[in-house]
């Protein structure tokens, strides 16, 4: 431990809500499944933004 402190914010979603939120945030190929209890397994692909001239 190096003495740093962090704040963890838990945000609770239902699977359909999380799926929709990820789509709204610009992710593609979103898949949300549950373990049956407590956890969700989520897969999503970030959509690359177009790069302008000079890498900007």
Describe the structure.
With 56 residues, the chain is an alpha+beta fold. The protein has one domain. It has one helix and two strands. The chain has one helix at 15-24, and strands spanning 27-34, 40-46. A hairpin with a 5-residue loop joins strand 1 (27-34) and strand 2 (40-46).
Which percent range fits the helix content?
A: 10-25%
Q: What is the general shape?
A: flat
Our count of domains comes out at 1
> Largest sheet, if any?
2 strands, antiparallel
Counting DSSP H or I runs of 4 or more residues, the number of helices is: 1
Overall residue-averaged pLDDT value? 89
Cα separation of the termini = 39 Å
Order of helices and strands: HEE
Gyration radius from CA atoms, angstroms: 16 Å
Count the beta strands. 2
Structural class: alpha+beta
Strand line-up of the largest beta sheet: 1-2
Unreliable sequence segments: none
Please report which band the strand proportion falls in: under 5%, 5-15%, 15-25%, 25-35%, 35-45% or over 45%.
Answer: 25-35%
